[in-house]
Amino acid sequence: MNDKIPFALFEAGSEDAALDDHHVVSEQDSSNAYGAPEIDTVEETITLPKGASWNFTCKSQKPVMWKHYASSYYWVPPIAPPEDFQTDDPDKPYGSVLMLADASVELVGRYYCVHVDSYHEDMEDRLDDLVAEYLASTIYVYVDDPENPLVPIHSPAFRVDQYEDFIVPCKPTRPDIEVELYKDLEGPQNYNTTYDSANGFTVHGQRLDTGVAIFICSAMNTTSLSINQTLYVPIDRTLKFSYSLYASHPPITV
Q1: I need a labelling partner for 199 at 20 to 30 A (CA). Which of 18, 71, 216, 248 fits?
Q2: Range(s) of the domain holding residue 203
Q3: Ig-like domain: from which residue to which, for each copy (predicted)?
């Protein structure tokens, strides 16, 4: 890896760690004042130890439900169905508990508590809008697993338009992990990128030639583990992503 020049680097604690425009997260107290569902934590993120169990309670003046979503890849965390209950709060009598057991890297991601009457089928891509409209609240979960510093991506290939922004989901399992994104070509790549640890690297308006381009995600300050992300650019000038996870360093393309 040392013979390649990173075109994007995130250092833990840098200003680029802020959530991007697609993840509008309000302060908990302010959201509650506008009628948003109330999650029983004032923090926007939480880091669970590997193997730990944790319950998140959400309550509101109307029935609520829990949803999970990742915008750039298919993600179904191994969780039990949430349990609804009646609270003892007359102002917020409806509650629901999200139960995360035996925490692993498969649980890393964003969870939403949303008003049932505001959510309809196939509205996952509008969950952040619902947060901004005080119709949902959100929590992002990290897991401290030293053996797995990067979130595994199991999704099949998907497509984005040439020259359009696209996300390379190079995501750490802990917020303090520094990550680099490499383009597997000689010389530096002057790509315009932004980063946040909940989504990965967003590449803005970049033209990629037809053929095969390889993106390599690397965790810097922990055990070596890389996600090999291959971009195919077909004749129709769209980009096609596929992902493979390798324990070797650097990864091997097959």
Answers
A1: 248
A2: 160-236
A3: 37-113
